[in-house]
Amino acid sequence: MTQSQTFRVSGLGLVDRTKSLDFTFDGVPYTGYAGDTLASALLANGIRLVGRSFKYHRPRGILTAGSEEPNALVELRSGARREPNTRATVAELYEGLEAKSQNRFPSLSFDLLSVNGLLSPVFSAGFYYKTFMWPAAFWEKLYEPIIRRAAGLGSAAIEPDPDLYDKANAFCDVLVIGSGPAGLMAALSAARAGAKVIVVDESFAMGGRLLSDVRSIDGKSGVDWANAVVAELAASPRVRLMPRTTIFGAYDSGTFGAVERVADHVAVPAAGEPRQRLWHIVAKHTIVAQGSTERPIVFGNNDRPGVMLASAVRSYINRFGVAPGQTAVVFSNNDDAANTIDDLIRAGMTVAALVDTRPILPPAIKSKARKHGIRVFEGAAVADAIGGQRVSGARIVAAYGTAQTISCDLIAASGGFNPNVQVTTHLGGRSQWQENLAAFVPGTLPKWMAVAGAANGSFSTSSCLIDGARTGAEAAAACGFAAAVATVPSTDDELTEVSAFWHVEAAKHKAFVDQQNDVTAADIRLAEREGFRSVEHLKRYTTLGMATDQGKTSNVNGLAMMAELTNKSIPATGATSARPPYTPVSLGVLAGEHREKHFKPTRLTPSHDWAKERGAVFVETGMWLRAQYFPKSGERDWLETVNREVKTVRSGVGVCDVSTLGKIEVHGTDAGKFLDRVYINMMSTLGVGKARYGMMLREDGVAMDDGTAARFADDRYFITTTTANAIKVLQHLELCRQWHWPDLDVQLFPVSDQWAQYSVAGPRARDLLAKIVDAPFDISNAAFPYMACAEITALGGIKARIYRLSFSGELAYEIAVPARYGDLLIRRLMSEGEEFGAIPYGTEALGVMRIEKGHVAGAELNGTTTAADLGLGKMASTKKDFVGRVLAQRPGLVDPDRPRLIGFKPIDTAVRLRGGAHFIGKDEEPTAQNDQGYMTSVAYSPMLGHWVGLGLLARSEARMGEILKAVDPVRGESTLVQVVPAAFYDVEGARLRV
Amino acid sequence: MRINCPFCGERGNDEFSYLGDASVVRPDASAPDAADAFYAFAYERRNVAGPTQELWYHSAGCHAWLVVTRDTRTHEISDVKPAQDIALERQNSASTTP
C-alpha cells in the first residue's frame, strides 16, 4: 500500500496535484506529483534520511533544493540504466521512478560501517598518506580493498548503456544562462531589441528563485510574472528556450558546452529519442544569470537530516508545497533568512526560534518575529544539532556563553549567499572578494560576457531586474541591435544585509565543512597545523571541494576558516575558481553517437561488396576495411590460404585492391620543380608516360612517406602516398606549396576516393589485362615497359589509367578506373582471368611478397628511420634542395653505427620468426645494453619454404652472414638468425621486366 | 575557439589543424650556415606570452594554410590571413630589398 503524503501542504506549491506519480525508494512504494523532484517527493512522504556519508557513514538527509546538493545522492533506475550519485534534489519525479540509497550496509537506518565515525582519528585529513604507509605490500591486499568497501558512493551500471545520446550545435546572438528574474529580464530585453536569444536553465521549470520565493513584481506574483515573460519569449521566433539544460563549461570565443536532459524525466526514452543531448552553443554575447548558492554555517552535527539551507526550506514550501518538518529553528547571519519565517508559518509549521549571529537585528525582522511569537536570539548561534538519524533539537549558545536546547525537527540555516561565478572563471578569470557581501563576485570577464543579478552579487529582486534589463540591452547592442533599455517592473523592498560568519566555535560535535567528502572543521585545523595552508594544499590534503559537487556549499567556508586560522584576509588566502564541468556530465553524452564502430567512419573499398561475396576475411587498416585473404573451402588456416595466394601470383596471376593508396594530382607549369623539392629524388626529369618510385622526408631528415609519381603531361603529375599517410602528406604538400614556395605555379587535388585501383600481378598479368584494355592501346613489353604509365580506356570506353608498377616483384600493373566502375572492373578481371587461373589476393599475401622482395612499408617507415637507414640513401639527389636534405646530413643521422635495414633468416628453417624481436650477439645476455636492433617485418615465404624477416641492425652491411639471437621477451622466445641481404626472391629483379 | 577562415567564414577550431609558429621561415639550403639555420627552423621556438602568429590548416574545410594572430594568454584571435598571401609579401619584400 502506498503511503500518503502527510507533509504535503494544501494550497501551496506549483506541483500538479491532478497528476499523481508512483515511485519507490529502497523498494518501498510512495507517491508524489508531477512537478516534484525526488527530494521534494521524499520530504512530502516524511522521508528525511536518504543516504550515508562517504567516509564516516553518517546518516544524511537533504540539505538543498538544487544542483549544489552534497548529501542526497541516490542510485536512480536499475540494471543497465542504473545511475549512481544522482542528486535527488534535481532528479525530476516520473511515474515508476526507482531510487536506492547509497553507501549503506546492510541497511540505510542500521549501518554497521558507521563505526567509521568512531575511528575518525584514523580517517582524518591526509589519512591515506599517514596511516597506510607501511608495509607497502599491505596496501594492495589489505588497506585498499577495505577502504574501497567502506568509502565510496554508488555503483555504476555494468551492462552497456542501452540509450541513445545526441550531439547538436546552436548559434545565437545572446546566450542567457539562467532563467531567474535577472535572466528572464535580460532575455526579454535582448529579444525585444531583435537579437536571436537562447535561454538555458538547468531546471525543468523556468523562473529560478521566483518559483521558490514569494515576490511581487508589477503587482503580480513572481511566478505569474515569470510565466508571462516565458510565454512572450516562447512566442518569439528569435528565442529558443532550453529548460533541463546545464551549461557545463565556457570555452574560447564564446563557445559553450551544454547538456540537455531530453528524457531523464521518463523511465525509458521513447523509441529513437535520445536520453541526453550534448550542445555546442556559439554565442556572440553571453549573460551569466545563474543566481547564487546559499552557504551553510559550520556547526556541530550540521550534517544531520533536518538541517537544511533556509532557501531550500522556502523552495520546498513555495515551489513544491511540502513542509520539510513540523517545528523549525531559523539560524542565520543575514536578513534574507528571516523571509523563511513567513513561509514556515504559511506551511502550518511552528517556528521555535530565530537565532542570528548579529548582535542587533533590523527592527523589521524583530517585529515580524514578535508578531508570530517567535523567540529571538541575537548575537547567538546554533552550536550543535541534537539527534541521530534526524534533528530533534538545537543547542543554542548565546553571546554571553549560556546554552540552552530547544526542541525542533528542522534547522533552517543560512550563512549568506555565494554568487555562482563558476562559469566566469572557466576561462581563467579570477573571482574577487567583496567584503560587504561576504562573498566572491566575478572578476575580469571576456569582453563577450556579462553577469547579471545574484550571480553578480545583486541579490534583491529589483536589482536582478535592473541588471537583467541593462545587460540584455547592452548585449543586443553589442550584436548590432539598437536597443532601448526595457522598463524595469516595480518590486517590493527587500533587506539583504549580511555579516560574515563561518563557523561556530562552541560546537561540541563534528562540524562538517564539506559534507560530500566528509571534511570537518577539525580537518581544516589539522591542515593548518601541518602546514597545508595555501588553498591548493588545503584542497588536496583534506579533499575539501573535490567531490562531485565541486565544493559549491563548502569552498568558501573552508577558505574563510583557513583565513581565520592564519590571521589573513580572505583575498590574501585565495580565491575560488572552477573548472568545467559545472555539474557532473555523463560519459555517454560526451561520446554521443560516437561509440563502438561509430567512433570513426569505416571506409570500404570499391571492391568491398564483391570481396564479401567471395568470402574474404577483412582487416582494419586505419579507417579502411581491406580484404586480408580469400580462403577457399578445405584450407586449414590463414597461412595455407596466403601461401596459395602468393604461389598463384608468382606462377599465374592475381588481383589485389590497392584503392586505399593516397592519390594526389599535381598540376601546373612548376609541378616538376615542386616535386623535386618534396621528394629526395628528381621528378622534373621524369619523361611523360613514365612513373618513378619516390621518397619524401620530414624537414628533420627522417623518412615520411614513399610512393610513386607518374607524369601524364609536362604540367600534370599524379602521385601516390601510403594508405596511412594520405591526409598527412597532402597537408605537408599544401604547406610547401602555400607557405614555403608560394610563387610556384602548382595546384594539388586529392583524388584518393575518385579512383578504384587494382594491382594485377603475375606472369599472366599481361595476358589478362590485354582482354581488359581497349584497342588501340599496346600493352606489349616493348610498347609499355616497366615503369611506364598511360591514360587509356578499358572495358569498352571507360576512362582508365594504367601503370606498370610492381610491389610483388612479378610482372605487374596497376589499373585504375573511376571509383564507380571499381566493382565492374574487379568482376571483369576475375571473369576474364578465369582462363589463366586468376585469383584475388589480400593484404596478407601483398605483405609476404613485399617482404620477399625487401620493400619497405609502415613497419620500416616508422618515424625514426632515414632514407639511408632504409638502404635508399643513394636515391637522394645531390643536385637540388629538398625538404629534409640539410638536416638528414646531421652527424647523428649519418652515423655508420645507426641500425640499417637488412634481411634475416632462421638458422633452423622450421622455426618461426617474430616481428619486434630484438637482436643480441650470439653469446651475449639479452639486456638493453646489448640490444643491436630489432626485427620490423616477418613472413613465411612459400617460395623459400621458411620464415624470412626484415630488420634494423647496427652496422648491418658489414655483418653479412653473421649469426645473432632474435630475442622476443614478450613470448619468451630466442631464435638464432643469420644476417642476409634484404631481398629473398628474384634478387636481380628479372621477373618484373619481362 | 573559433577561427574566421578568410575563405569559409567563422568555424570551430575542430575543423583546423595546428602547426605552430609562423614567424620561422624555411632557410636557404645553399647558404653557408644552412645546417644551423635549418636546425633553428626545425626545433627552436619562442614561448611567447602574448600575441603570436601561428600556422593553422583548414583541414576539414578549404585546405588553406592560414596565419592566425592569437594571444596565448587569452586565446583571443585578432587576425586571420591566407598564409600564401603573407608568404608572397615576404618574398616580394625580400626581392626588393637592396
Q: Could you explain how this protein is built, in words?
A:
The complex is a heterodimer of chains A (994) and B (98). With 994 residues, chain A is α+β, with helices and mostly antiparallel strands. Among the domains of chain A are: 16-127, Ubiquitin-like (UB roll), CATH 3.10.20; 165-292 and 419-478, FAD/NAD(P)-binding domain, CATH 3.50.50; 294-416 and 499-573, FAD/NAD(P)-binding domain (3-Layer(bba) Sandwich), CATH 3.50.50.60; 661-751, 2-Layer Sandwich (Alpha-Beta Plaits), CATH 3.30.70; 890-986, Beta Barrel (Elongation Factor Tu (Ef-tu), domain 3), CATH 2.40.30. Helix content of chain A is 22%, strand content 27%. The mean pLDDT of chain A is 94. With 98 residues, chain B is of the alpha+beta class. Chain B has one domain (2-25, 38-96): Folate-binding superfamily (Folate-binding fold, 2-Layer Sandwich), CATH 3.30.2270.10. Chain B has helices at 34-43, 83-96, and strands at residues 2-5, 9-12, 17-21, 51-57, 65-71, 77-82. Chain B is globular and about 45 Å long. The model of chain B has no long low-confidence stretch (mean pLDDT 94). Chain A binds chain B through residues 251-255, 280, 282, 427-428, 446, 699-700, 727, 730-731, 734-735, 738-740, 742-743, 748, 881, 885-887, 889-890, and chain B through 1-2, 12-13, 17, 19, 26, 29-30, 34-35, 38-39, 41-43, 55, 57, 59, 63-65, 74-77, 82-84, 87-88, 91.
- Strand pairing plus helix content of chain A: what structural class? alpha+beta
Separation of termini of chain B? 42 Å
Specify the biggest β-sheet of chain A.
7 strands, mixed
* Average pLDDT over all residues of chain A: 94
Query: What string, H for helix and E for strand, traces the elements of chain B in order?
Result: EEEHEEEH
Kindly report how far apart the N and C termini of chain A lie.
92 Å
Largest interface: A-B, 29 and 32 residues
Given as residue ranges, the uncertain stretches of chain B (5+ residues, pLDDT < 50) are none
Beta-strand portion of chain A reads: 25-35%
- Please provide the count of β strands of chain B: 6
**Radius of gyration of chain B (Å):** 15 Å
Helix content of chain A: 10-25%
Shape of chain A: elongated
The total count of strands of chain A amounts to 50
What name does CATH use for the topology of the domain at 294-416 and 499-573 in chain A? FAD/NAD(P)-binding domain
The chain-level mean pLDDT of chain B equals: 94
Q: How would you describe the oligomerization state of the chains in this entry?
A: heterodimer
